[in-house]
Hints:
The chain has 710 residues and is α/β, with parallel strands linked by helices. It has 29 helices and 20 strands. The strands form five sheets. Strands 13-12-11-14-15-16-17-18 form an eight-stranded mixed β-sheet, with helices on both faces. Strands 1-2-4-6-8-10 form a six-stranded mixed β-sheet, sandwiched between helices. α19 crosses α23 and α27 crosses α28. The mean pLDDT is 96.
Amino acid sequence: MSAVSLTLGDDGTLVASMDLPGRPMNVVGDALMAGIAEAVDKLADPAVKGMILTSGKADFCAGGDIDRMSKWTTPQQPFDASMAMKAVLRKLELQGKPVVAAINGHALGGGLELALACHTRIALDDARLKLGQPEVKLGLLPGGGGTVRLPRLVGMQSALQIMAEGNDLNPAKALAMGLLSAVAPDRDALMAQARAWIAANPKARQPWDVPKFRFPGGDSRSPAMAQMFAIAPSVAAAKSFGNYPAIGHIMSSVFEGGLMDFDAACMVESRYFAACCMSAESRNMIGTLWYQLNAIKKGASRPQGVARSKVSKLGILGAGMMGAGIAYVSAKVGMDVVLLDTTPEAAERGKAYSQGLLDKAVKRGRSTAEQRDALLARITPTTDYALLQGCELVIEAVFEDRAIKADVTRKAEAHLAASAVFASNTSTLPITGLAQASSWPAHFLGLHFFSPVDKMPLVEIIVGAQTSDETLARGFDYVLQIGKTPIVVNDSRGFYTSRVFGTYVMEGISMLAEGVHPRCIEMAGQQAGMPMPPLALQDEVSLSLGVHVADQTKAAMAEAGTAYTEHPGMAVVRRLCTLGRVGKKVGQGFYDWSEDGKQLWPELATLYPVAADQPAQREVIDRLMFAQANEAARCFEEGVLRSVADANIGSIFGWGFAPFHGGALQFINAMGAAAFVARARELASRYGARFEPAAVVVKQAQDGGRFADA
Length: 710
Ligand code: NAD
């Protein structure tokens, strides 16, 4: 069965409908391209006046077939595949009869490239429809002619923005920039407009195949573009620190392609495409941000055999920063939310947070007044526990205090059905201990959100000693229901994300005490690909909170009879706190913070004199990254982590572990266990036992193993 069904109408219009058998979406691979090649051949039939390329599925085409790409082992394979696709598309646009892309759903990556090869593009006028070239997000570039056609259609600057940033466009934006020629209100109108275009343009040609074609806005030789190319690569490099080679390859392909004819440009693009496909960065990102993320979304960490559940009424205890955010994201997907605090004013303030976000969205045209009012109507601020009756799930986000948490748990449970699930959003307190306050500890779990809740994509689900599989499954379903990504970890101090994230910040701070220049430390954090440098990050989180958590941990461990070894970085944090420099909230920490920005506190050098001998920058970067990867490996070894996918996705989505490494455990996989162990031991001999490689990695180095889910 062909992947493209062909129907010739009485008016001579050939409708080529992409419908890849056995797949939920159309993806560009051998099967789809063979179907399109057949359609192009059919255009030679004198009875055919033109063709509409559309899709028989809900979306037009989702992009390249990642499974096929993952099998490529030599650069020749992606080069050949990319050239073969372009040969078909080149034939399509040069055969002399008009071809219209009727875009009925998302057209992304290779899907948009198919549409770009058509003589014009009309899309459904649906604000949710996505058009874009997201390849860069997996370390790739558009290898189906995208870097050649897009700049020739919308100009180099817009094309670079679309491809180097990888963000989607909606039809209205795409129409405004000339990527689409029209939009249609519904599917019938879409097809009618496409037919009309064919009738009106019997001899369609692409603009770049017309003599005297000029790039809109100029080609690479034009003064304006020359000026842009003098700046854009350095701006991109300053942002990415050279960690994402695909960005450079996209720019090179567009620039070089803008100096040569169409077919030569296509060949240049295929070479850069091959380079991207073979890069370690792309392999890391595809492995984690595609395969592992998809596995998580499909429920790899969700207990089997529990029926899917949905929350229709949610209770939230504590309407502070976290409670207010959780209320917003939950009401947004249609849940009724009871938002409870100690005073009506505090509860109202929590609801006002949603109002603020929504007012902004209405102002920017991303929402309507009706949508805003409907969402707000679903949030009931209150001080009355009786209103919790009927909630399937209650999330507690009150102060980080065991006694208060125990109190609200009891009060809430008095009004809940025995089937309700109770979750704590604690960031540090072990879940098993908190569950002691519950009458149904099997129904108790941790749902650890990240701040700001409306922006952060991850929720860390914590399984207490008594949490049942059903409770875990229901927590998991809720996280998916609010559109976030769940990872599942076992109960332990700091869980997974806070524990590993802490090692990054603490390693940076301990280097300060050793005399490493603070600017080197901060620069190393950025060069390593972390979203924020360690000292600035501690200022954001607040130094006093760091001390509070460390003291709590120390006390709890003493109570449990376990030894507590404080990280050398903590002494620095304590010292700054005694000087009142407790972080950004008071404008003073490692930095002086002001309205105009931040500046490293000049007196740091007096407190911690800068050593005459500074380490190589590589050494500083390695310390920051090995500290995290090694701690993640320990979490795996101790059973805090339940899967490699959760470890990697949790690290990228939770605290921004450099995505090009593919996550904290993939960092070790990519390097190879033996190399990791050797380097970790080197670091341990210089900086302390915390770098001694986790036993699980040492064993991998001996057996040739690696981190992988079954
Ligand atoms: P917050 O101080 O902003 O809000 C806490 C709210 O709880 C306040 O509105 C307070 O009035 C209310 N509250 C206190 N006692 C109460 C009681 N007995 N009954 C009802 N309401 C009560 O704190 P937050 O930052 O929103 O943190 C809340 C929880 O989430 C804490 O456990 C914290 O550790 C955790 N957490 C915080 C973050 C973060 O980045 N802030 C991230 C993850 C988890």
